[in-house]
Structures are given as C-alpha cells and as structure tokens.
C-alpha cells in the first residue's frame, strides 16, 4: 500500500498494482475503515479500481494527522477476503432487439448468441469503480471468449438500461447517453435514481450476477424497448 499527497486537502491511497477481486475487496474495506478513523475530518472518499482518493477538511486536520490515522486504520487490510461485498442479481433481457451488437459479437467470437448469453450470465462480476455517469458501474471481468473492443465509432445515443461489453469489462448504462460499448441486452432495473435511498443498487466492492429474463418479464418490470 502506498499513500501520496494529492493536494492541500487530499491524499491518494494505492492498494494494489492491478485490477483484481482481492484488490477491489481491499479498497472497499479501506472505505469502511477510513470512514470510522477520520470521522468528521473526512469530506469524501472516492474509490476506484485499485486506489482510493481521500478528501479531508484542512480547517480541522492536516496532512500528517490524516496520514498517521490512515496507516493505523489500514494495518489489517492485507487479509481481506475477495468474497466480501454484497451479492446483487440484475435481470437482463438478452436479444438482438435489446442488444444491437449481440449477433455481431457472437459471430466475431465464433459462438452462438446463446453461448454469449450463457457466458455473460454465468460469471460473477466485481464492481471495480463507478464513474462516467452516476450509477455507471464498471464490472469485471468478462470471460475472455466474449471480450470485445469498443466500437470504432461510438453511438450518439445508447438507451437507459443497455447492458454492454468493452474489452473485459461489462456495465449497465444508467441513463440515455453516448457510448461505444457493445450492446448485448437490456436491464429493467434503474442503476441510478436520485429519489431512491440508496440512489444506486450497487456500490464498489459488490458482486454482481446477471439473470436472463424473457421479453414479457422485462416489460412487466418496467423495461423499455
């Protein structure tokens, strides 16, 4: 673990050198530990794949105090288990009408669309980071047989709920937005709702599985095509 200054009111904590379930679990455990250790001096914690941005109140504490408390709080983290974090199931309607790139991705991989669906829904994914837009959770890792590069030309409009793959990551688009990931299905669950508590169904460190559902079930759950 490495701790570096990131400005007059922030520090960057690095908890590993590569993306992995174990490092992600360590990041999430660090969030919980530092919330308690820093208390009212803490302004925000921003977790990512293998790092954690710590923003503190420079009016109530200083760099040396924060660094000391961070190091004390994180002394135990090396033994954190990758199995920690909530288990979340997200329903997905996999079909060409819901995922424009499903057939092309299957053809490129030399697989049937059923194979792609089975491989995608058969994995458990770790939430490594949330970014790009509120509720956009970067999940990994996708089976290498269905990993696919980003589109050469991004779409100007990707629908809310679109389930997509880029390289060995997968995600659900939380809102209508531009995007260059390969679309393979659609999820009826809202990934970000500012009026809900919590506002997102997943957080960094959670473990996600996708459950195939029928078209009728998708529409009954509020999905839109």
Topology (elements, then pairings):
Elements: E1 2-5, E2 10-14, H1 21-38, E3 42-47, E4 51-56, H2 63-73, E5 87-94, H3 102-109, H4 113-121, E6 125-130, E7 137-140, E8 155-158, E9 162-166, E10 169-172, E11 177-179, E12 182-186, E13 207-212, H5 215-220
Parallel strand pairs: 5-13
Antiparallel strand pairs: 1-2, 2-4, 3-4, 5-12, 6-7, 6-13, 7-10, 8-11, 9-10, 9-12
Kindly describe this structure.
By secondary structure, this protein is of the alpha+beta class. The protein folds into 2 domains: 2-79, Gyrase A, domain 2 (2-Layer Sandwich); 87-220, Cyclophilin-like (Cyclophilin). Helix content is 23%, strand content 29%. It is built from 5 helices and 13 strands. The chain has helices at 21-38, 63-73, 102-109, 113-121, 215-220, and strands spanning 2-5, 10-14, 42-47, 51-56, 87-94, 125-130, 137-140, 155-158, 162-166, 169-172, 177-179, 182-186, 207-212. Helix 1 (21-38) crosses helix 2. The mean pLDDT is 90.
Summarize the structure.
This protein has five helices and 13 strands. By secondary structure, it is α+β, with helices and mostly antiparallel strands.
């Amino acid at each position: 673990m490495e701790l570096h200054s990131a400005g007059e009111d922030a520090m960057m904590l690095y908890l590993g050198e590569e993306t992995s379930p174990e490092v992600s679990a360590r990041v999430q455990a660090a969030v919980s530990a530092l919330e308690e250790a820093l208390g009212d001096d803490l302004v925000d914690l921003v977790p990512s794949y293998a790092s954690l941005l710590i923003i503190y109140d420079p009016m109530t504490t200083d760099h040396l105090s924060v660094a000391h408390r961070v190091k004390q709080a994180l002394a135990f983290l090396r033994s954190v288990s990758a199995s920690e974090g909530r288990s979340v199931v997200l329903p997905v309607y996999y079909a060409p009408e819901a995922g424009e790139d499903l057939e092309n991705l299957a053809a490129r991989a030399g697989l049937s669309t059923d194979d792609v669906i089975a491989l995608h829904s058969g994995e458990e994914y770790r939430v490594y980071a949330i970014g790009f837009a509120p509720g956009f959770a970067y999940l990994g890792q996708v089976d290498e047989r269905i990993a696919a590069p980003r589109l050469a030309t991004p779409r100007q409009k990707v629908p809310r709920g679109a389930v997509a793959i880029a390289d060995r990551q997968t995600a659900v688009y939380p809102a209508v937005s531009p995007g260059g990931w390969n679309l393979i299905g659609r999820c009826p669950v809202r990934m970000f709702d500012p009026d809900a508590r919590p506002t997102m169904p997943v957080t960094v460190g959670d473990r996600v599985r996708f459950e195939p559902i029928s078209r009728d079930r998708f529409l009954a759950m509020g999905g839109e095509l």
